[in-house]
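User: Can you help me understand a structure? I only have the sequence.
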Amino acid sequence: MRRVLISSFFTCLVFWVYPQLGQKEAAQWRWGAYCGLSFQNGNPVFVNTSKIHTQYTNSSMADSIGNLLFYVKGADVVFNKNNDTMANGINFGGYGGGSQGSLIIRKGGSKYYLIGYNLINYIAPPPIPPMFNYAIVDLSLAAGLGSLTVANQSISPVGLAMVGKLAATKHCNGVDHWLLTHVGGMPGSNQYRAHLVTTNSLSTNPVISSIGSIQFHNYPTLPGFYRGVHKFSPNGRKVAATMPRKTVELYDFNTSTGVLSNVLKLDSAASPSVTYTSLDPQAVGLEFSPDGTKLYVSYWSKTNHPFLCQFDLNAGSAAAIIASKTPIAPALDTTIATTNSSLYSLQLAPDGKIYVINTDTTALGVINSPNVTGLSCNYVQGAVSMGTVAIGTNTFNAKVQMALPNFVSSFFEQKPVLSPITGSIVCGTVSYSAPVLSAMAGYSVSSYYWNFNDPLSGANTSTLSNPTHAFSANGTYTVKLALNYYPCGTDTLKQVINIIGLPLVSVTGKTTICKGESTVLNFSGANAYTLNTTAISQNSAQVQPTLTTVYTLTAKDNSSGCSSLKTFTITVLPCVGISETGSSEGLRVYPNPNSGVFSFETPEACEIKIHNSLGQEVYRASISAGTSLIDISQEAKGVYLLEWNSKTSKGKVKVVLD
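Assistant: Let's start by predicting it. Here is the structure, written out as tokens:
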């Protein structure tokens, strides 16, 4: 998009890009009962080739331009991009369960970690086998379709019960990842475990944070597991979790150390008790908005509790954030409660929208503007319909079931952008403002570093948050702002500005000379000039540098008061052995200096030779009387000596290639 800003003295064009989610590794979704969506070209398009049929755990992976690579059903089947079972792709980690029991993290190159949750191991005879395992896929194998090279490698230790929650985010070094799990069992635990995932290994020695409410594997009065999740915000600096008894908690996450801190309980049952049942409201799914300022939570209930709510993390105090809970699907309450349907999984997509599952339906709800507060976020129920799929000779309606694909949250980070420039801009002076970032979204800026891409100005950088810069001349500049975060990490923002309207200055004259010579420079385009630090009273100046010298010309337009700068170089050559001799009456070389193509005018036929400053001959020709075109443009810039020899005269003349 282009914006034009005009004042009486100055015009500039500013180009900027609105926030968007740039990565397409999450562009292919496969889940539920044969559901598939492609976000490769923006809006979701139904794909009817998925082989997944599951209520719960699944994950998918695309390449950087959105082409499907492979997808996973639970922790037991991997499908390649042709929708066939991948080589060695059966039972790589056990039996997946829960709505977050499968996850894919890129290892590096063509290799990926597959993380799987084994629900069955919880009811195995003690000691409990490892409940989290991983495998490695290598897509360079099987003619590019991939093969599992490692499987059933334990992450959690023997004897430790784990809840079925998997989430991951980028380490603040921008290369590694953190994998977040949680201890469960009965009577439960409040222990989060953050595993460092690198290109070399997946650590089984996690960073442990004992924080927040006790989480257990299943409801005390029910045999089934609870369907809560935990997720990172897109920038990785916050974690939110849903758990039994309608509990929703928010934490800070240090992407450098892997430590969780500062728990805030956003919601909970008024009087939790061991008799709490599935008929009571339960917090189930959740998702952050792309900018991390809003949190959405779905509630499973057969009572009249709202089923989809928003918390505004920018509301202010902790009490204000808790009080900001806003139902955004109130019209669904009665219908959902009477039909036994419920909202479950929520998942941010590459298009910046959040998609919502309503159990056992053939369509997804959509939160169209998740960064916006309250009902203006525009939730639409049943907005994206699934199609039909053919399985053998039968045709089925694809169903969304209870869990959307699980992804690394960093895929959805919405980077900050520079604000549009507003107001009158005079004489190339532009005021910039760093974006105001939400502390509750996890942003803590430690320093700013602006680079205006304008070294001629003499003040090319700034460490202020809101600097002002006077551009030195007309031209296109890419302005960069580095936001350095605490404890680590950097975002670099860019904005292109095209400066026009300053004095258009030109310099003419000989800019390549021999040592000892002088040259006269002529200036135009303004009223007053300063060459380096010397004021020029006329529109020309004679200079005689002894070495190659860079000059800076400051030119001021008295009518507007605006100035611009121009640099140019006078090249000084030794010109050893080059001197002009003989009579040149009737002979002309023009233009001189030139770009290597010039005219030689002589009153009579002659022989000419041209030598460079080292004495090497670079040109020889017989010239008839009149004007001939000489071309030595293939030679380097510098001073050359042209010799001529006719019946009545001979001599030498210097020719400058500039």
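Now, to help you interpret it: The chain is about 0% helix and 45% strand. The first helix runs from residue 318 to 323. Let me know which part you'd like to focus on.
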